[in-house]
Structure prediction request, 268 residues.
Amino acid sequence: MNMRFNLNSEQLIKSLSVLSASLSQSTVTMPVIDCFKFETHSTGRSQTITDIASERVTAIEMPTIESFAGPVPSRLVGFNEARCEHDHSGTVHFYINDDLFKCVWNYKNKYLPLLRQYESVIGPDFSQYVDMTYDERYYNAWRNRTLTAEWQSYGINVIPNVTWSLPDSYDYSFSGIPKHSVIAVNCTAIYGHNLSRYLWRKGYEEMMQRLEPRLIIRYGDKMPEENEAISVYFPNERLQRLRRLPRKQRTRKSILMSNQFNLFNYGR
Prediction:
């Protein structure tokens, strides 16, 4: 989204909301993308998004997921690193670049044995950028929820991952997630950007009101005005490694690789 930030946060969020609302009322359908190939849970038969491309994505019902009943995580490990680890005592997370975990969607059954080895898993986190269409954001949220529900059906302890985008995302972002549950929330890539913090806080307030979680597994920096009393914090390990580098080595490439420069990815 190419725009100048001459407005204050209140004015800008109103403008973005109007834009997002207009997109949600359009007749644009989801593009057919090869990487959306997947295996169905029931038959294992290979299908593609072509099956639903002719309809509005919002016609797809958001799956309902179960509460998490496992132990509170003591250690988080990114999926890209979990594939190489021998210590399976931690909890796998997907707060990494989408390209590093899209394989769990493309080849659903292949990674079930790996995920089963860990104590628990945080639901996937396919991105919802504000420059995506409403349908694209909805579809990524649906993929997150679908994988969570399927993994739970296979007996994997999955912590519901709660993520949101613009205010028009609240209804689908929080539907199907049980109230009074343990959930996971991430704030990567927003702390240093005023608008990002504003949108994150607004979504956080809405999430707290609708879901009333009993415990939040929080990935990333503490944010102002969040409920620390019911939160367990885990640092962003990639950002920690970056901060340990000498300043001269903190190149633009290293910042991008750390996945900290996604200013408009409020679900990441």
